Amino acid sequence: MRVVLLAAAGVFSASLVLAGQNAAPPAAPAAPGTIAQAYEQFLLAQHLEGNGEVDQAIAAYTRAMAFDPSSADVVAELAGLYLRQGRTERARDAAQQALALDALNREANRVLGVIHAGLADNGQRTPRGGAADENVAKAIQHLEIAVQGAEGEVEPSLRATLARMYVAGGAYDKAIAMLTPLVNDEPRWSDGPQLLAEAYAGAGRIRDGIAWLEDRVGDDPRLLPTLADFYERERDWTKAADAYGRAIQLAPFGRNTNDLRTRYASVLLNLGGREAALKARDALMAMGRGAAGRDGLPGDVRALYLLSQAQRRLGDLAAADAAARAVITLNGRLPWGYYALAEVLEERGRYQDVADLLAPVMAQFRSAASDDSTWELSMLLPHLGFSYQQLGQYDKAIAIFEEARRLSPDDPTLSGYLVEANMAARNYTAAVAIARAAAAAHPDDLRLHRVYAQALRRSGKTGEAIAIMQDLLAAHAGDPSVHVALAGLYAEADRPADAIRVLQAAQARFPDDNQIAFQLGAIFDRQHRFSDAERMFEQVLARDPENAAALNYLGYMLAERGERLDESVDLISKALAIEPENGSYLDSLGWAYYKADKLDLAEDHLRRAAEQLKTSSVIQDHYGDVLFKLQKYDEAIAAWTRSLAGDRDSIDPDGIDRKIRTAKQRLAR
Predict the structure, then answer these.
(1) Does 8 share its domain with 97?
(2) pLDDT of 38-61, one tens digit each?
(3) Quick check: 213 and 227 in contact, CB under 8 A?
(4) Does residue 344 lie in a domain region?
(5) Is the pTM value of this prediction over 0.90?
């Protein structure tokens, strides 16, 4: 700002000497006559600049400086003129000269603050080669002096610049204190609210930011995306989706809303559920209708990735596959397309295809990865490990999960995967050792402790496993999944009464929790309390009619008993309509057809299930049964042999041995 000058020429120089009393020793005071001449030239310079006669104004300032070399104001005003003319180097030199006379001169500090702020905004280094962050610090240092004690006189743009530097320098609370009145006083400042929101976010005051935005957004709908972002930070997906949806609807006609639609879709997918997935798909497909789209698909990598996710959740696996491949075509150097395609192939049970897709890609990413850039590998390695595990190639799976854990040693999820792979390979001692160390390193990770308990149980240490889960339940009684996990251990330890007791107590505490009702139904089924089991699954379906797992379990339970087979087929078919290529559901439907003596239909579904889930002993057993009944004895023997080599879950190995001997006898005839 321009300093308001006193009319009395004698005060002109003396006031400057007093203001600079803490600065370097000023030049010798000018004689009264020369002070008057300096003042005359000073006023003339301001007049000339106002008329656009810049060179003449500079000459007048120069004469004023010669008449009164002790005046910091004259040099500071010259610095301001240079800055207004874009002559930054001269402005900087003049401002520094003024500060040598008076370190607290506001105009000189303003000039230097603005210069350093501009350099900081452009990411440039300081004139002497310092880091770009040094510009932020210097801008703050000078601007604080420029505004100190003169807030009412300081133009809003200068306060805004200082607030922006506070945000850039991480002084978020100072930024909030300065921005709040500034934003309220300057309603036309379009960037102010966003900057204030950024300050709230940087300070970690998300809820304060939400409260401020909620109060403000009615008058300024442009803040809706920012409010939605704050809701996202709080994981309030419902409110975030609503805010993004309103922002899209209120966007001016012709405005490109693709970024908003992408963010909206991401929130909807976090929200979960079929309705949200439908909205996400529709929002993303709307992007493909513009010039950026191609073949009706959005032209953005992230949008295509999200579209694949939405279509997969809706059961449209062909469309999800196409969107994932489009991501790879658009940018095969990033892992997103491979990740999305792997998920689609896994849902289809095509684990060999997953391995064939990812193995060469992993080699590509390994060769390109640096020590500080391995996130691509970390994203894809678990999917490759899962595919090997499902294919029964346990050594490869373990090696992959070990590689993933080396890349991300602090990720407890990867330790859990490695434990599960060792359990699948029946390496129970190794599984327990890995789980014990990981659980000790991550005492608050509930899933890891549940995996640890499973490893102990598989290794024959059921008592220790139950003790771990009992301690976990005592510490986390408010988590329904812990109740379910302890009940599962009791059931596997042949303690069904304890399992039922735990679940019924949990159901009283969490009456609307479907996982509790589902697990209780499963345990009732194993105890042959079929009416109680049906009641539990019907409770789940009453709350969630599209719960595919409950539809399948209830249908399979009826098929296993050979009862109400038409109803069984109908229930399982509904589950498959939701998850069309789920191998377990294909097995259930094939088994229902087998019980109904519809062998051709049974063979088709069981073959697809067996090809998908090669290590599932019970599925290979079912497939062997239908093949035997169709008198395909050699194929039945192969299926039963795979059953004995598989996970051996829910089978009678001696019974399968007898079936193999019978089939061989039939072949010999």
Answers:
(1) yes
(2) 888 889 988 988 999 989 989 988
(3) yes
(4) no
(5) no
